[in-house]
Amino acid sequence: MAHKPGSSVTIYDIAEAAGVSPSTVSRAFSRPDRVSFNTAEKIRTIAEELGYRTKLETRNSVRTTKDVIGFVAADLSNPFFVEVLRGASHAGWVQDVWIHASDVQESQEKSRAAVDKLMGHVDGLLLASARLSNSEIQKIARTVPTVVINRPVNGVPSVLVDSYDGSIRLAAHLADQGARTVTYLSWPEESWMDSVRWRGLREATGSAAGDESPLFTRHIPLSDERLNAVAQMSVSKITLGAPTAQGGRRAFIEWKKHPTDAVVCFNDMVAVGFLHQAAREGVRIPDDVLVAGFDNNDAAQLVSPSLTSVAGPLRAVGRVAAANLIALVQGIKKPMAKPRVLPTRLIVRESTAVKKTRP
Prior knowledge:
This protein is of the alpha/beta class.
């Protein structure tokens, strides 16, 4: 295979020239003890011929005998990812594996750059960023052992929080509290988790209204009275500028133009911003509007009124994802055939404590 001088050489080029898989090339660079001597030497020779020498030297200068896992986090200022990272770090500590975290700050460009820099320096990758496409993640997984967090990708192991079930439970609770109109504050970017939460809210109402699908009643046994209450609910959506407290404050201004009985926020950070803006403008929570979020971070308990939230076992997500990745790296088990889904709980607090009455 011919390459122009100075052109970018990838492990895919080396794999094609050597007649091996990209994952074998990756192991030859990062863990040569797991590749036969002849194969490793062949790969290194071809890599040098193709101009890959500098990359090899750089990698060899930073590698240690300890396994290293890269953790690509969408935003480490978001408590969700901090909790997941803590769980992953615990699993790594138990297995004597280093976890190297990279904060890509909700940037697609930084997500790609982080993966590119980590490849060859780590034995596996935990991907907790929504900015990479499914095809990109599948390509990465063909090169290095990979587990995706909170998002299913065909052919790639993943660990998820069951936000769909959480949305349904939340819809039933809001109906119990007398809500008939609900606004969902949605993340603007392509996010699988956002779509699941929105779908759960919509399908809860659809299923309760007589849809033959048993999705709603399968999750929560309801009396006829509760089914009728949920059937009367309508849901609408406001798109956030950002899934942050500032985004929640701005969304409040939009919501106030067409107020509803309840507001469900993409995450607790958005809900906190909504609560703060409501207090500034004299809107009483929960008397005037019921408010709830997702993730159950520390702020949910500290704000006033305290925030009702759908809680996911975030540290467990990190532990399970990291433990499965370590097992893949060490050759102990094969990749999970299906996503591992962990359950949620609805934590009811003051922000939805008042039951609305109807004339």
